Amino acid sequence: MKLSRFTESLPAHAEGGLMAAVLKNKFLSAIAQEDLAAMLPRMREVELRKGQVLIEQEAAVEEVHFPLSAQLCNLTIFTDGRSVETAVVGSEGVSGLAPFLADAPCAWQVVVQIAGSALALPSSVLRSQARESADLRGLLVRLVHDYQAQSAQTAACNTVHRSTAKLARWLLMFDDRSQGKKLEITQQDLAALMGMQRTTINQAAGELKTLGAIAYQRGYIRITNRDLLERSSCECYEMQRRRSRALGLDPA
């Protein structure tokens, strides 16, 4: 089932503002009317700050977030304080999905990477509705598979490919979910997210800038030529994009 079957008729009790927000999230736009009607009264729209922690590593998932204009990332936190990004979540999906479905502590930290809006829902509400609805369970399983594939592709990419290609892939994934926003991040923070040395990121960013694919100033990176960036990326970006599209989960 593709994530594109939202019906013309909407729940009668839905407020216009909240219903308009629902349509900005591809997962929510795809679920059956009766599932949406059951959960909508417990949803609320929230504004998320850059750097805000939504789920702590090893904590229970009490609330899930469906990004609208915000972008989230999953971080694995090590005992020495270092952290590495393992997946990104945009308007195609929902935060904390695998641990929420397993009713288990979250194995990573969920952090707001790009400030913006999201719909928040108590995890118990989504879990209860998923028990009742085979259609909703099917969509959730597809999304879990997509995020698992993304994490596996990232792990493989980090082991095999050059830093410039990895940075290009990361920037493309950001661009797919950014809704035209420029990337507000320092190269030091980007190096930490990608598990690289700052000098390595500086060199990779310099190569992409010289090529004409990106421009940057202190604290910001802007994509200036997406075609060049795609040609600079490793095969991992296109492989993951094909998988997501096949599932109806393409974030772009």
From TrEMBL:
<feature type="domain" description="HTH crp-type">
    <location>
        <begin position="161"/>
        <end position="227"/>
    </location>
</feature>
<dbReference type="GO" id="GO:0003677">
    <property type="term" value="F:DNA binding"/>
</dbReference>
<dbReference type="Pfam" id="PF00027">
    <property type="entry name" value="cNMP_binding"/>
</dbReference>
<protein>
    <submittedName>
        <fullName>CRP-like cAMP-binding protein</fullName>
    </submittedName>
</protein>
<dbReference type="InterPro" id="IPR036390">
    <property type="entry name" value="WH_DNA-bd_sf"/>
</dbReference>
<dbReference type="Pfam" id="PF13545">
    <property type="entry name" value="HTH_Crp_2"/>
</dbReference>
<dbReference type="InterPro" id="IPR050397">
    <property type="entry name" value="Env_Response_Regulators"/>
</dbReference>
<dbReference type="GO" id="GO:0003700">
    <property type="term" value="F:DNA-binding transcription factor activity"/>
</dbReference>
<dbReference type="GO" id="GO:0005829">
    <property type="term" value="C:cytosol"/>
</dbReference>
<dbReference type="InterPro" id="IPR014710">
    <property type="entry name" value="RmlC-like_jellyroll"/>
</dbReference>
<keyword id="KW-0238">DNA-binding</keyword>
<dbReference type="InterPro" id="IPR036388">
    <property type="entry name" value="WH-like_DNA-bd_sf"/>
</dbReference>
<keyword id="KW-0805">Transcription regulation</keyword>
<dbReference type="InterPro" id="IPR000595">
    <property type="entry name" value="cNMP-bd_dom"/>
</dbReference>
<dbReference type="InterPro" id="IPR012318">
    <property type="entry name" value="HTH_CRP"/>
</dbReference>
<dbReference type="InterPro" id="IPR018490">
    <property type="entry name" value="cNMP-bd_dom_sf"/>
</dbReference>
<keyword id="KW-0804">Transcription</keyword>
